[in-house]
Amino acid sequence: MGRILLALITVWMWPDEVGAQGYSAPALSNKDSWSMVIIPDPQGYTKFARNQPLLDLMLAWVEDNRQKLNIGLVLCTGDLVEHNYITERPKENGDQLSGSQWKCVSDAFGKLDGKLPYILCTGNHDYGTGSSENRYSQFNSYFPPVRNPLNQSLLVEMAPNAAGVRTLENACYEFRPPFGKPLLVFSLEFNPRKAVVEWAKSVAARPAYRQHRGVVLTHSYMRSTQRNNERITKEDYPPGFSDYTLGDDLWKQLIQPADNLGLVVCGHIIDVASHAGHVGFRTDKNRSGRVVNQMLFNAQNEGGNWKGNGGDGWIRILEFLPDQRTVKVKTFSPLFAISPATRQLAWRTEPFDEFEFYLD
C-alpha cells in the first residue's frame, strides 16, 4: 500500500515539476540594486473584454514584487487604449467602448496608487477617435496630476496640452534612486509639438538639473532590430495634425544637444510579428560625447497577433546596479509565470531581450 501511495504522489507531482523545470523567479543579481519596470503598449489588453484581466495580472505582479525587486519606478510606453473616443462598439478590432478601455488601464495602474510611482506617456491611439485624428485625449480624465500622491511628490512641472491645459501628457519628474545621480524623467506626448520640445529642452538645461541623469519616455521614437534600430523619419500612420516631431527630429532637437539626457524609452513599433520586430536598442553620443541609450520595447502583437491576447504579459525589468553604471535588462511574463505548467516560457533570453547597458 505504501508503494502505491508513493507512486500516486509521484505521478501527481510530476506535471508541475516538469512544467517548472529550469524556471527561477525574478530576483536582483545584487541585493543592493534597485529596479525599474517597463510596461509596453497595453492597447491589445484594453480593447477586448477577455484580455483586460491580463493587464490587471501584470500590474498585480508589479505590486506583489515591489519589495523583492526594490522597484523604484514604473514606466508605460503609451497606447493605453486602442480607441480614445468611440461611440459604437468595434466590430473587429476589439469589442469594448472607449470608457471600458480607459477604465481598464486606470484600474490596473490604480493597484500602484500610494505604493509606487508610475509614469505613463500617451500614444497615437490615446488621441482622436482611434489613431490621432486630432489632439483630443481622455488621458487627463483618468490620470489627473493629483491621482497618485507618489507621482505628485516627484512632479517638477507640466506643459500645456494642445487645448492649453497643463496635464501629465507632458510632464517632468525628479526621481531620486537609492544611489547615484537623481533622474530627471520627461514624459512626452505622441510626436510632441514643437512647443513641447522647446519646453523640455529648457527644463533639462536648468542649472539645478545639469548633474541629473535625464530620461525621455515617449511613444514613437525608433524602429526595431528588424529595421536596424533606425530612428523614425516617417510615421506608418500619419497623424491628423501638422505640428509634430518625429523620432529622428526629437533626437536632433532635444536629446543630442542636451548634456544630461542619457536614456530614451519608447514603444509603438511592430516591424514584424516576432520578438525581434517589437524591440530595439541603440547607443549614440550627445554633443558632450556622453552615451545615450535608446530602447524600444513593445509586445502588443505577441500572443496571437491583433486579435490575440494583447501581448503575452511581457514586461521589462531594468536592474540598476550599485556600481552606478551597469543596468541589466530582462524580459519576463507574469502571465506565463503564474502557472507551473507554463513557467518555462516566462523568460525571453535572446540577446535583444536580455542584455546589459552602461550609463555614462
UniProtKB/TrEMBL annotation:
GO terms for molecular function: hydrolase activity. It comes from the Bacteria. InterPro entries: Calcineurin-like_PHP (IPR004843), Metallo-depent_PP-like (IPR029052). Residues 56-269 form the Calcineurin-like phosphoesterase domain. This is Calcineurin-like phosphoesterase family protein.
